[in-house]
Amino acid sequence: MAVATGREYGLFIDGESAEPASGELRDLTEPATGEPLARAAMAGEQDVDRAVDAAQAALSGAWGKTPPNERSRLLHALADAIVANRKELAELEARNVGKAISSVKAELAVAVDHYRFFASAIASIAGRSNPVGGSLLFYSQKEPVGVCGQIVPWNYPFMMSTWKVAPALAAGCAIVLKPDPQTPLTALRLAELAVEVGLPPGVLNVVPGDGPTTGSYLVKHPGVDKVAFTGSTKTGGEIMRLCSEPIKRLTLELGGKSPNLLFADADLADAIPSSVWSIYYSAGQSCEARSRLLVEQSIYDDVVAQFAGHAGSLKVGDPLDPETQVGSLISTSHRDRVHGFVERGREEGAEVVTGGEAGDGKGAFYRPTVLAKVDNAMEVAQEEIFGPVVTVIPFADERDAVRIANESKYGLFATVWTGDPARGHRLARQIKSGMIGINTPYTAFPGIPFGGYKQSGFGRELGLETLELYLETKSVLVSTGAKPYNPFGL
Ligand code: NAD
């Protein structure tokens, strides 16, 4: 189904499209063209109240009694519905975010796998029993943590929603999901599909709205038991502060400045094009983009030249063209922010080898950019640029490489390219990040825990560990009556 331009999208509350109390409909533009795309309702406090009420009612009603095998069936049915509607979802996402449709199709395929993984992972939800002694019997049971406020950013609206929605539904929670106000469309469609396949009303509610108002109201809402946030480290800190007073459960997936270590003994024919992909896919707007390319000094000039050659030949343009490799950025204001980093990097002494300028057309395009002669202390090496900009930093030896890799406030991901397997494992121990790839650029797979060290956040997505973050453990202690346990001997 082709996406109709100009459609109006409501909020999604209690199983149906809902008008916002304020009546606000915001114009959304296509970042790649600057043309109008759709109008979307924006939620305010009263709408969040309605959504939280609906989620609580679902939990205390039918959803709270839905057995695990039925939750599993629903997750598979939702995966099937995403497959059946993949063309519409892909076009909607590509046009709303501006990203290349080839990337979006891959993201949708992985999202389907995530729903299927958590549909199966439900079987792992279990308590335990172990001997306590005397007449006492102990067992534990798992319970859904309750209503989850989930907040996701604009860079992968469908995928980030999936990473949060799938484990929460598997655990039996109810959800109020707040997408970024610029990119609410596929999350709203996801909620529609969920109800179409039989998810009870109120289990998944979607309330697009502004972060500092609607988002923080959702975080603080007394009816929300757990907050799961993906976004910038700065906002993550603010959300942590809001959660501290009511001691609200919280997981944070935050920013990154991930290193990509290239040793002279690596297979450069694989490592260089793979490294090009690992920064420029999604136009560099990925939390785990390998934005710091650390290169052994002896091959530095050669790698910079080859890397820049590949970067300069990437096809940048129309997100809906299947040949496009790099689409537009999310907005012209974000493009200008990215360019500001590049300009300041140039002033600090970095050399712009390729790129460093806006692309053609009135959309938010920015050419894949290579900054060489970068010192790890420069702003461009320390701050998350969140655009198609790689900083290339030389290192002397393995020890120096580890030092530079770890000199960052972030610790989300690292990739190591080496022909020495033992070195790969050594570095996996020494680099402080939640994930390491050795001789592969890929990052996120169903079942493999994804998340950060340091200011990249805490908690993990995509793995069995994630389910635990949506569950409470209740310990039950029972007297079997055989011989009462009487510690005071009374
Ligand atoms: P952001 O922090 O500005 O916004 C993210 C979300 O939080 C949006 O929905 C926004 O409306 C909301 N928000 C903003 N202020 C809020 C507040 N005070 N209270 C509650 N909600 C608020 O981030 P962004 O610029 O939209 O997204 C990019 C960031 O997300 C990058 O830093 C990127 O690294 C990070 N990210 C991390 C991961 C991961 O898994 N670690 C994945 C994707 C993106």
What does this structure look like?
It is a single chain. This protein has 490 residues and is α/β, with parallel strands linked by helices. It folds into two domains: 7-254 and 456-475, Aldehyde Dehydrogenase, Chain A, domain 1; 259-438, Aldehyde Dehydrogenase, Chain A, domain 2, CATH 3.40.309.10. The chain has 15 helices and 22 strands. The strands form six sheets. It has a seven-stranded mixed beta sheet with strand order 14-15-16-13-12-18-19, with helices on both faces. β8, α6 (185-196) and β9 form a beta-alpha-beta unit. α3 (86-97) packs across α4, α4 (101-121) packs parallel to α5 and α9 (268-280) packs across α10 (300-313). It is globular, with a radius of gyration of 24 Å. It starts with 6 loop residues before the first strand and ends in an 11-residue tail after the last strand. The model has no long low-confidence stretch (mean pLDDT 96). Bound molecules: nicotinamide-adenine-dinucleotide.
Quick tags:
15 helices; Aldehyde Dehydrogenase, Chain A, domain 1; 2 domains; Aldehyde Dehydrogenase, Chain A, domain 2; 6-stranded mixed sheet; single chain; 7-stranded mixed sheet; binds nicotinamide-adenine-dinucleotide; 490 residues; alpha/beta
